């Protein structure tokens, strides 16, 4: 035996990363294509409030109500309010062929609700609370569109029943165009 | 043998292909960041349901969920049980399942920490965009009577800013 024996040569194995990269790329593309990205948002309807009026000269709140229900085969949007100068504004809404729950129908309804509420808010800027109700068969998307349209000018929204919304809308007439 | 002190072979250095790995890991990180829903990770959309679109810019919050789909109602705080919507109608005869639900919901609300109740007990409402308002209102009415005060109507953003 030689005192200076030649050491065993260690065989260095090189990691073959190319197939791993191929695999990972395939997996990532699969995940990217099979995933649907969705942004969640929300509309808050806070607890109903009871307000106490202490000043005897302060006018009572107008309690405006924004209602949407079917009337004579069409949808009608009504904004009604009480007080010394009670009144109402009513407009017929003709949804597109895709329906009121379609993106286009939602946008049109939102614009109509926005216009109606902003006109009211310009005359009564202190009113921030709005009661919203829609008919029993009106789709959920229509409620969201109406609330979206109203919240810019009147952020405090209270939901009211479909019975009240339908009863009120039946007793109104559309605005003369 | 070439003598007493043989010349050692130089070991070839192990070379890791770092560039490709960095590329891949960057893509994974970006994918995970984009694919995460922060603060609402426990939201489960009913199968086949399409949430309504909204222009609201409020972020979704973690809260108990009320799911309304296919004529049935489920409260996430009470497990996987679906209840028929018909028992939620105001004119329906008192149903033991509804009474039990109300009792359980009230118990859940009472167990909440005071700070969770200070801004109103939150409820995430999730339903398909075609769901009639009657179904939404009747189901929500029961939850409000049971102590849930603030309703959060969950929708998908339209991307409009």
Structural class based on helices, strands and sheet pairing of chain B: alpha/beta
Gap between N and C termini of chain A, in Å? Answer: 114 Å
Strand order across the biggest sheet of chain A? Answer: 4-3-2-5-6
Number of helices of chain A: 4
Distance between the termini of chain B: 79 Å
List keywords for this structure.
heterodimer; A: 177 residues; alpha/beta; 5-stranded mixed beta sheet; 4 helices; elongated; B: 161 residues; 32% helix
Describe this entry's structure for a reader.
The complex is a heterodimer of chains A (177) and B (161). In chain A, 34% of the residues lie in helices and 21% in strands. Chain A is an alpha/beta fold. The longest helix of chain A is centred in the middle third of the chain and has 21 residues, at 103-123. Chain A is elongated. The model of chain A has no long low-confidence stretch (mean pLDDT 81). In chain B, 27% of the residues are buried. The longest helix of chain B has 18 residues, at 18-35. Chain B is of the alpha/beta class and 161 residues long. In chain B, strands 1-6-5-2-3-4 form a six-stranded mixed β-sheet, covered by helices on one side. Chain B has four helices and six strands; from the N terminus they run αββββααβαβ. Chain B is elongated, with a radius of gyration of 27 Å. Classes of the chains: A alpha/beta (177), B alpha/beta (161). At the A-B interface, helix 1, strand 1, helix 2 and helix 3 of A face helix 1, strand 1, helix 4 and strand 6 of B.
Compact summary:
With 177 residues, chain A is α/β, with parallel strands linked by helices. Chain A has helices at residues 17-34, 103-123, 140-151, 162-170; strands spanning 40-45, 65-71, 74-81, 87-93, 129-134, 156-159. The longest helix of chain A has 21 residues, at 103-123.
Q: How are the SSEs placed, and which strands pair?
A:
The complex is a heterodimer of chains A (177) and B (161).
Chain A: H1 17-34, E1 40-45, E2 65-71, E3 74-81, E4 87-93, H2 103-123, E5 129-134, H3 140-151, E6 156-159, H4 162-170
Parallel strand pairs in A: 2-5, 5-6
Antiparallel strand pairs in A: 2-3, 3-4
Chain B: H1 18-35, E1 53-54, E2 65-69, E3 72-75, E4 83-84, H2 96-111, H3 114-118, E5 122-127, H4 133-145, E6 150-157
Parallel strand pairs in B: 1-6, 2-5, 5-6
Antiparallel strand pairs in B: 2-3, 3-4
